[in-house]
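User: Hello, beginner here. Can you help me understand these amino acid letters and fold codes? It all follows right here:
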Amino acid sequence: MEGKAKRMWALPGAEFIANAAAIMHGGSTELYAMPVPCYLIEHPKGLVLFDTGCSPRMLDGINDYLGAFASVIRLRFSKELVVDAQIRALGYRLEDVRYVVASHLHFDHAGGLYLFPHARFLVMANELRYAWWPIPEHRLILNINDLMPTRNFNWLEIDGDYDLFGDGSIQMLKTPGHTPGECSLLIRLPNRTVVLTGDTTHLRAALEGEITMPGDVDPETAVRSMRRLKAIRDLHEATLLISHDPEDWAAFPHAPAAIE
């Protein structure tokens, strides 16, 4: 089926001051502003939110919220950039968000989950287990404070590609490797097809060179997922939007402008 979503907004969020070496083997050590966005998609059957960005609670004190991890990152963030403020600025209520799709559950993608208790949450299989009982070296990037409020939320674990509305317009793609349950999201819009890659890959150079990052759970699987994204790009004539790549981020309109 060839359904279409109506439009999509790229919601700016926090920025990390980072270097490519932290997110790609062999990357540059030069510092740059790494975007941490999320995305709101309007479908005739309701709003879908892909990722929720950093937690608004980080504004009250990053050291208290992130603990030891706060010492290794530099952050730009403001109350205007939290996901709930941006959704309201577009004229919607938080209750209008019908689905929340989690690319994965690292703190910079899952910080606003607790703001949507009314929504249906979709996540790939094994991601919840990984987030609640992380391997020791990943405990700093999986913040239990992001997850605790969501224990009684309406979670649906998906073990494979999933068509949200049954019309081909919004499809979860299984792309593990960075985490066990990493996923991407394919969106058919009126004038283009876009794939939001989550953290399947972090930089355009990493995708094209099939280069993993130091924190990937399964580097071999991560490479297969990158190859899958490139195949989907070619077969569907889709645009891959790599969220943490500053050039990709700059190439698209940002809210309040819509992508159609």
In short: The longest strand covers residues 7-19. Residues 177 and 220 are 7 Å apart (CA to CA). The domain at 7-251 is CATH 3.60.15.10 (Metallo-beta-lactamase; Chain A).
